[in-house]
Write a structure and sequence with these properties.
Layout: H1 2-11, H2 15-22, H3 27-41, H4 44-56, H5 62-75, H6 77-89, H7 93-109, H8 113-145, H9 156-173, H10 176-188, H11 194-207, H12 209-216, H13 221-243, H14 245-258, H15 265-296, H16 302-307, H17 320-345, H18 352-377, H19 383-415, H20 422-441, H21 451-477, H22 483-515, H23 519-532
Helix pairs in contact: 1-8, 2-3, 2-4, 3-5, 4-5, 4-12, 4-13, 5-13, 5-15, 6-10, 6-15, 7-8, 8-10, 9-11, 10-11, 10-15, 11-13, 11-15, 12-13, 13-15, 14-15, 17-18, 17-19, 17-20, 17-22, 18-19, 19-22, 20-21, 21-22, 22-23
């Protein structure tokens, strides 16, 4: 089974990635993609790991990845049908050796990776069914001597033990397909009853989650949520299959006769595996939205917790004054992120990690504030509150612009060496000190927050910027600083200055919103300042 699945995964090339990237835009397409890819590579584990990787890198959304996982579980039933139909419906061992031979030649003589991988898959396919032939003969003899059914207690306790056996075997072997192949062969040889075999199959579904759990260790929050969804789906499916086990066994005993086929144990187990997984997928149709909401509350990182709105409550929208107050409080939080990032940019050297963390938190929280403001705008607002809402949106724009500029500054600072020219070191230090003072003064959560002080400190930043710029030009003109380095330092200083201005503008707007009366005047002042720039 390992040879076959590894060969198929390699032979498939980029088909797995391409299908995941292009074929998961909706839930039905994600379900189909998961089913088709798993059927193609004969490994639900491979699809699960790939999905976690895609979610980890942001190429696949958690919502769409859920249905890929559900489809992958459905596609894993093809393993059981492969064994049941080919292993027992045909005398496959008569030409299994031919597959081994052809596959071995391709593995050794193939000119491309794809042909060698296809050879590995063919050889694995042949060896798999040779092994099933050996198991059939062995289990038939053992079944005449020992009947495991004598050692399995009937009822729920016995089923739970068998489910545990199936789970443990799958965790150890890291492939549910191989366990199911052994179980089908044992049942066909009379060693296990169909009911006992089905209970073990339920356990294999649970056991497959171990790989996903291991893959999610150390991954992003969304990747861990996807692994948790995989576990939840398999546990829900297993619980439903266990509760319905007697009914499903009677159903699969009746269905083959309806189709004109003998109800052999191998066929019945394959049917049970498919039907139980179909039931699991059907249960997910109503449960998936709630599961997604619950998962989004789990595995939150510090950044995600910081980016979650703390003051925006939809119930407040019924009282516009209260809603505006909540909006202002949330804008004070985003201002805190902007201020922390600006202060980090003023360090020597700049604290790139803090700048990135704080700006990402601001950008993650901004859409929620925008949506809340949109909902508030649909309410009939008096002119005064409508103007304050417009100024709130202006404040958010200033903060988002500052975040973008500070991300650019972080990238520039990363590639700049420490200054070695004394001509501009003192000016650079004075500029950074002025930016740091402005950052502290621009935090509306400080008791000493004062818009007038912010304006004074912004003027100081402008003076220090002009002095630094002149010092950089002189250092470049006298060849004490390379021209490319001079240009990079100028660009960093310019970007930092613009970010500081945006943070200061947002601080003045928040101060005006807190006063509640001069927001219009503050907006006019900002417009005049922008026109002057």
């Amino acid at each position: 089974m390992g040879m076959m699945t590894d060969g198929l995964k390699l032979a498939a090339g980029r088909a797995l990635e391409s299908l995941l990237e292009r074929g998961t835009s909706t839930a039905p397409r994600g379900l189909a993609a998961g089913y088709l890819i798993t059927s193609l590579v004969q490994s639900s584990t491979a699809v699960t790991i790939a999905s976690i990787g895609f979610v980890n890198t942001g190429l696949l959304s958690l919502k769409n990845a859920l249905w890929v996982i559900f489809g992958s579980n459905l596609g894993s039933t093809m393993n059981a049908w492969l064994v049941a139909v080919l292993g027992f419906g045909f005398k496959i061992d008569t030409f299994a050796l031919a597959f081994v031979g052809i596959g071995s030649v391709l593995m050794l003589a193939g000119r491309t990776l794809r042909s060698r991988s296809l050879g590995q898959a063919l050889a694995g396919f042949g060896v798999l069914f040779l092994g099933i032939g050996v198991l059939k003969d062995s289990f038939s003899v053992v079944g005449d001597i020992v009947d495991l059914r004598d050692f399995i207690s009937p009822g729920l306790t016995g089923w739970l033990i068998l489910i545990g056996v199936g789970t443990l075997l799958t965790v150890i072997m890291q492939t549910s397909g191989a366990v199911i192949a052994i179980v089908i062969t044992a049942a066909q040889g009379g060693l296990l009853s169909v009911e006992a075999a089905c209970a073990i199959v339920i356990g294999t579904n649970i056991g497959t989650t171990s790989t996903a759990v291991l893959a999610a260790i150390g991954a992003t929050s969304n990747a861990r949520r996807l692994a948790a969804a995989h576990v939840l789906f398999n546990v829900v499916t297993a619980t439903a299959a266990l509760l319905l086990l007697p009914l499903l066994v009677r159903l699969i005993d009746w269905l083959p006769g309806l189709l004109g086929q003998p109800a052999t144990p191998s066929l019945m187990i394959a049917l049970f595996h498919t039907i139980s997984n179909v039931i699991g997928v059907l249960l997910m149709v109503p449960l998936a939205p709630g599961m997604l909401r619950q998962l989004n509350r789990m595995f939150r990182t510090r950044e995600e917790e910081a980016a979650r709105p703390q003051h925006l409550d939809t119930n407040s929208l019924a009282i516009p004054d209260l809603a505006m107050h909540a909006l202002r409080l949330e804008l004070s939080r985003t201002q805190g992120f902007a201020v922390a990032a600006l202060a980090a940019s003023a360090m020597q050297p700049p604290d790139e990690a803090t700048m990135t963390r704080e700006t990402k938190a601001l950008q993650a929280l901004a859409p929620a504030i925008g949506n809340y403001a949109h909902e508030l705008s649909t309410v009939s607002l008096p002119p005064t509150l409508a103007a304050r809402l417009a100024h709130s949106l202006r404040t958010l724009r200033y903060q988002e612009t500052a975040a973008v500029q500070m991300q650019e500054a972080a990238g520039l600072a990363r590639n700049l060496p420490a200054p070695d020219s004394q001509d501009f070191c003192s000016e650079l230090e004075a500029f950074r000190e002025a930016v740091a003072h402005l950052a502290i003064a621009s935090d509306p959560r400080q008791e000493a927050f004062n818009a007038s002080a912010v304006s004074v400190l912004l003027d100081e930043v402008e003076i220090r910027y002009q002095t630094l710029k002149e010092a950089l030009f002189l250092a470049g003109a006298h060849a004490r600083l390379g021209i490319p380095a001079m240009q990079d330092w100028l660009r960093l200083a310019s970007v930092t200055r613009r970010a500081a201005k945006q943070v200061a503008k947002a601080a003045r707007m928040i101060a005006a919103l807190e006063e509640g009366t001069s927001a219009t005047e503050a907006a006019r002042e900002e417009e005049s300042a922008e026109n002057g720039d």
